[in-house]
């Protein structure tokens, strides 16, 4: 099973992805936890380019770099892990590109969807948790860290990102579960775990 965590800045994706991975591992599942952009040596190098405040990729270059990192992650880690029956948890995946590069940057959706389909070769999460939080709340949570290039974008950009996520959740309610990310982390973790267990119990073994 392939699970992704999505959401704006500081929404708690990493916290929840890690907690879920730990719990499922304790319960005896093989769990592979990855993050985007990154998760492979090529992906990490691309991450450096994408998030460095010293770089200024244009919008199409940015979309292509995210797609390149994803293509490598899919072929090197995600596909083989899913093939042997592991649960893959990804801290961000393709929905981030729709939210940031289409919603935030304004690139044409159809082209970005085609690019994403090329990068993933059709791999899509079975279940996605959208941790939804007001942009200002997410920013406040991250105030102690130095902002990377994406985080330096203005508030309007991040509002458009959030709205794009909300639209995605509305358009794919079977896959994307929107959660109120202002709730306490342990409460969210419990709800996520219950939803994953329910999904696992409906899936044939080994998928
Ligand atoms: N990006 C893109 O544009 N296109 C793409 O296709 C992809 C990505 C894949 C990656 O940044 C950037 O790339 C990202 C989108 C863009 N940029 N922006 N802007 P990243 O990987 O460095 O960071 P991130 O994915 O944006 O995550 P994050 O903002 O660092 O945070 P988070 O993972 O959502 O949250 P966290 O680290 O779990 O928690 C943040 C803080 O909140 C921390 O102090 C926690 O203790 C606290 N927290 C967590 N949960 C709670 C709750 N429930 N209540 C209160 N406080 C909480």
What does this structure look like?
- The protein is α/β, with parallel strands linked by helices and 207 residues long.
- It has one domain (2-202): 3-Layer(aba) Sandwich (Rossmann fold).
- Helices cover 56% and strands 13% of the residues.
- The chain has 8 helices and 5 strands.
- The chain has helices spanning 13-26, 41-51, 59-83, 94-104, 109-120, 135-141, 155-171, 185-202; strands at residues 2-6, 31-35, 87-91, 127-132, 176-180.
- Strands 2-3-1-4-5 form a 5-stranded parallel sheet, with helices on both faces.
- The mean pLDDT is 95.
- Residues 7, 9-15, 36-37, 66, 92, 96-97, 100-101, 141-142, 148, 150-151, 181, 184-185, 188 line the site of ligand Z5A.
């Amino acid at each position: 099973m392939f699970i992704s965590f999505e959401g704006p800045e500081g929404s708690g994706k990493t916290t929840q992805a890690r907690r879920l991975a730990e719990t499922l591992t304790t319960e005896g599942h093989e769990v592979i936890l990855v993050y985007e952009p990154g998760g492979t040596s090529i992906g990490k190098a691309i991450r450096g380019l994408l998030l460095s405040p010293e770089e200024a990729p244009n919008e199409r270059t940015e979309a292509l770099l995210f797609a390149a990192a994803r293509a490598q992650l899919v072929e090197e880690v995600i596909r083989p892990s899913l093939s042997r029956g592991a649960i893959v948890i990804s801290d961000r995946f393709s929905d981030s590109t729709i939210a940031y590069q289409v919603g935030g940057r304004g690139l044409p959706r159809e082209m970005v969807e085609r690019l994403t389909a090329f990068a993933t070769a059709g791999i899509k999460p079975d279940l996605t948790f959208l941790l939804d939080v007001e942009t200002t709340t997410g920013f406040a949570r991250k105030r102690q860290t130095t902002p990377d290039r994406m985080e330096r974008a203005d508030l309007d950009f991040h509002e458009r990102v959030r709205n794009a996520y909300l639209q995605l959740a509305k358009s794919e309610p079977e896959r994307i579960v929107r959660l109120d990310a202002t709730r306490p982390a342990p409460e969210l973790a419990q709800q996520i775990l219950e939803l994953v267990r329910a999904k696992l119990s409906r899936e044939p073994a080994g998928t």
